[in-house]
Amino acid sequence: MSENAFVVVFPSIFAKNKVNQLESNIKKILKIKNQEFRKIKRDDSVIVIDANDPVFASSAINLLFGIKKVAIAKQVKNDFNTIVSEITKIGSNLLLKGEKFYVQVEGFSTGFLTKDI
């Protein structure tokens, strides 16, 4: 995958107060499954993993208890035109003609509202 693809882990309600232990368990499961990663960091309530292979890393992480959901995300500049063009590019690569998909934008934006996307 590209250089700016990350694995994003959303902790479940049971793990909200044990995020440090969840981070430790993520490191352990990646080591057990021989999945290399560059770094693990927190961004608000989510854990972001910079993994060499996000697909296999997300599959391994999803085995752990205390995880609500795991997603593979691409980091882009916080600019309306950049975000729309990346969504369009990824959607055109993944979908067949006539298929529909749902985009959920979370977080903070400057210069536009997230519902505009």
From TrEMBL:
* Gene3D superfamilies found in the cross-reference section: 3.30.2130.30
Q: Under what name is this protein listed?
A: THUMP domain-containing protein
Q: Which organism is it from?
A: marine sediment metagenome
- Lineage summary: unclassified sequences, metagenomes, ecological metagenomes
